[in-house]
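Exercise 7. Given the encoded structure of a 180-residue chain, write a plausible sequence.
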């Protein structure tokens, strides 16, 4: 059976802890089916999906040639995808980052050199904190307080999805920045 993979940037533990603490002051646990644990908080660069181990190794090899510098990302508050009253995804937005957008484009190009992918989707960087609306209750997020926090990105990772484990995302490889 093929495993599912994605490429992403892990949220630093101190920021992940702050996010989960702020989330716990809301009723997201009642309104959504899935709330990632702090160790699973990340920014997805590209969802690869189900692939064979040999293909994964080719993708990892292709990243040895990627040239990028470390950069800073800053959180930008609570946002959502979907309907205002019953949002399907709640997330922490990020301030616009040309460096992040360029890295994501480079990652997508390297993957496209190995497997056929859909490159038409827009990239909207975010940190998912709750997904899959599952309630008749009203969403209560007034008590969600999270100060803007910045962090340095000097690596991204390849994660294997383990749906029945906690944490769900297992880092199986990482790519460090080439320039500082």
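Solution.
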């Amino acid at each position: 059976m093929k495993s599912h993979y994605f490429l992403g940037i892990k949220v630093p533990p101190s920021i992940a802890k702050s996010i989960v603490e702020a989330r716990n002051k809301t009723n997201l646990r009642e309104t959504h089916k899935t709330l990632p644990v702090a160790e699973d908080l990340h920014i997805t660069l590209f969802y690869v999906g189900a692939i064979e181990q040999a293909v994964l190794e080719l993708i990892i090899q292709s990243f040895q040639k990627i040239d990028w510098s470390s950069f800073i990302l800053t959180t930008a508050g609570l946002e959502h995808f979907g309907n205002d009253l019953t949002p399907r995804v709640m997330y922490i937005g990020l301030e616009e980052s040309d460096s992040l957008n360029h890295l994501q484009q480079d990652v997508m190009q390297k993957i496209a050199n190995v497997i056929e992918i859909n490159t038409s989707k827009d990239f909207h960087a975010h940190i998912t904190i709750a997904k899959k609306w599952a309630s008749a209750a009203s969403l209560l997020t007034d008590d969600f307080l999270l100060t803007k926090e910045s962090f340095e990105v000097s690596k991204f990772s390849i994660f294997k999805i383990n749906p029945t484990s906690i944490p769900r995302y297992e880092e199986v490889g990482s790519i460090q920045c080439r320039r500082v």
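Remark. The first helix runs from residue 13 to 23. Students should compare their own answers with the one above.
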